Amino acid sequence: MIVVIIGASFAGVAAALEVRKKQSNAEIILLEKQPTLGYIPNGLHLYWENKIANLGAAYFITKEQLEKQNIQCYLEAAVEKIDSIHRTINYLQHGKEETISYDKLIIATGSSQLSQKISGSDGENVLKYKRHHEAEDALSKIDASKSVTIIGGGQVGVEAADLLSKQQKHVTLIENMDYVLFKYFDKEMIQPLQQKMLEQGIDLRLNQTASSIEAEDQPVTIRFGNEMVKSDAVILGVNVRPDLHFLDEHIRLHMDQTIAVDRYMRTSVEDVFAVGDCIQLTFGEDDETVYIPLVNNAVRTGIVAAANLIQPKMVFKGSLRTIGTFIFGYYIASTGITEAESLFTNQKVETYRQEVLLTSLPNSATVTIKWVYDATSHTLLGAQMISTSDILEKINTLALAIQTKQTLEDLQQKDYFFHPSFTQMISATNFVSWPEVRDDGNEN
Length: 444
Ligand SMILES: Cc1cc2nc3c(=O)[nH]c(=O)nc-3n(C[C@H](O)[C@H](O)[C@H](O)COP(=O)(O)OP(=O)(O)OC[C@H]3O[C@@H](n4cnc5c(N)ncnc54)[C@H](O)[C@@H]3O)c2cc1C
Hints:
5-stranded parallel sheet, 25 strands
């Protein structure tokens, strides 16, 4: 059996390793258009944080490690066309067109930082850094810049703002919502961090939509509304999008040009699977699908596709869009739905926000937690946290609580360890006030 996987990043590599585990005789071929594989997209952030000495260290796997597992890697092999009827793939390698046949195909071509709405955003001087060569280029251009404008106040944009302001760059951040990180947090939860951004001199332009970038001249001009800002460099931190120009018409797409798959990662064509950033996923237990481009989703969908190659055996359990990071002095984490997006569900949702001491020690740090839960059953639907202490791992507990449909009452009974140096008498994730008995701490 020949299994061809297009795209050798998180999703493609996870799929390849899992296929190897399950099908010891399969011929596995990874096709990757870049000259290298396994680059970590925020490698540049790791470098700026001095966690790695150079971008060459920002790799999670090498070609040699894959080849040791008898997985063939064709690098600089850019797929141009798939014929899903005749089961062939055409790709360009070193200027030559090649054709390969498959029995099973996994499409893992991911996404790029693209914007169709901002004119000039595809210009060479508009910096992105998801790929290694883009990051090298961005690094030298940013090194030579005193002022940088970032378009997009999502996780990538806000992390970049933090790291660049530490390098004494003058940072402008343009965001079209009225607060940053809106996908993961409700407005009031992120205010302390936003305040810190302002204190650290970030020129925050909220409620502003970037419309054009003129990047041929120095400084670069970025226009938004009736205003404009000039800076030495501009970073595109907007949503990523897939580029699937090579598909034939038999593979069904969603309106947003992502590939439609079922819960087994099967596309509309037999023996063709799609995984990672080029698909939409089920969000929680709902059947409704959403675009959630995150590494964990890429890896898990890759594993699920590999498990279902021969027969549909393993259902993808959905994503909770779990994230965690440290920015502007705050550890922030989120999983499940926010209160803002709960308005778009059919459920009656309640929320509760509380501040909890993290340890029993004097001067213990606190964490602010927001619980989003079903008003009738009290089943947990979402949680957000912000603290100056590292609470990131707690979000994984709460993600598990959502996946296993725990109620707030179940959480109060959750078994946990006590140690005065590390926990409070009641642990942060146990300390859920009963909605009916809590005092007037409920601000909603
Ligand atoms: C700057 C940045 C930082 C991020 N940080 C995080 C983070 O901290 N945590 C997190 O969860 N997520 C993060 N993400 C999102 C994360 O990068 C993606 O979810 C993840 O990379 C998706 O993996 P993937 O394998 O589906 O696709 P990708 O990583 O996009 O990989 C797709 C691969 O397919 C190849 N390819 C594409 N087209 C073709 C073709 N036609 N022929 C051959 N090969 C092709 C590409 O070269 C690429 O190697 C970040 C994203 C960005 C942009």
